[in-house]
Write a structure and sequence with these properties.
- The protein is α+β, with helices and mostly antiparallel strands.
- The chain contains 3 helices and 10 strands, in the order ααβββββαβββββ.
- The protein is rod-shaped.
Length: 181
């Protein structure tokens, strides 16, 4: 066990440390109390801070289907203000052939197409944070099931910011002919 320096200097045991050591101890105690108060205040404020967190706005699309033979405008709303650029739209198909243009020359050269998208039909309103686009579904007489397209909006200034929507291509109901006799 070592003897404190203030006891060794005086040459005789003392029941109390010198005044400078007492002030140092008192300063440390004040600092510890302040630290405890600060930590307590921070812990008490955590529930308040958690309640102030603003949830991210959910992007919504006004429709999730298109019928064969139909041209339809889709509206995406709720795009957050953190998206600083003009969103870009990508269309991909699952069980559906997607054309990147709706020009009749292209459509006739690809008779099995299911849906086409014309980028010139896209509009972006940065004030209302609304994006609209148009799709055209090919009307055919082939009964297909499970045809869907995915529309993905991307913020060009931050490609990790995306919103994807699945759109189902509904079949045109075929007339039913009943022969009785």
């Amino acid at each position: 066990m070592s003897i404190p320096a203030w006891l060794r200097r005086s040459g005789r045991p003392s029941s109390s440390p010198p005044e400078s050591a007492a002030r140092a101890v008192a300063g440390v105690r004040r600092s510890v109390r302040s630290l405890r108060r600060g930590l307590l205040a921070a812990l008490l404020c955590l529930p308040l801070l958690a309640g102030l967190a603003v949830p991210a706005a959910a992007q919504t699309i006004d429709s999730s289907s298109i019928t064969e033979g139909q041209t339809k405008t889709f509206t995406v709303s709720g795009i957050p203000s953190s998206w600083t650029g003009t969103p870009t739209l990508g269309i991909s198909g699952t069980g559906a052939l997607v054309l990147s243009t709706c020009l009749s020359v292209v459509r006739t050269s690809q008779p099995q197409w299911d849906i086409c998208h014309q980028s010139s039909d896209e509009t972006w309103n940065s004030g209302t944070r609304v994006f609209t686009f148009q799709l055209q579904a090919h009307g055919d007489s082939v009964s297909e099931s499970g045809e869907t397209v995915t529309a993905t909006l991307t913020d060009p200034d931050n490609s990790s910011r995306t919103a994807s929507f699945t759109i189902t291509i509904d079949e045109v109901s075929q007339p039913v002919v009943t022969i009785t006799g």
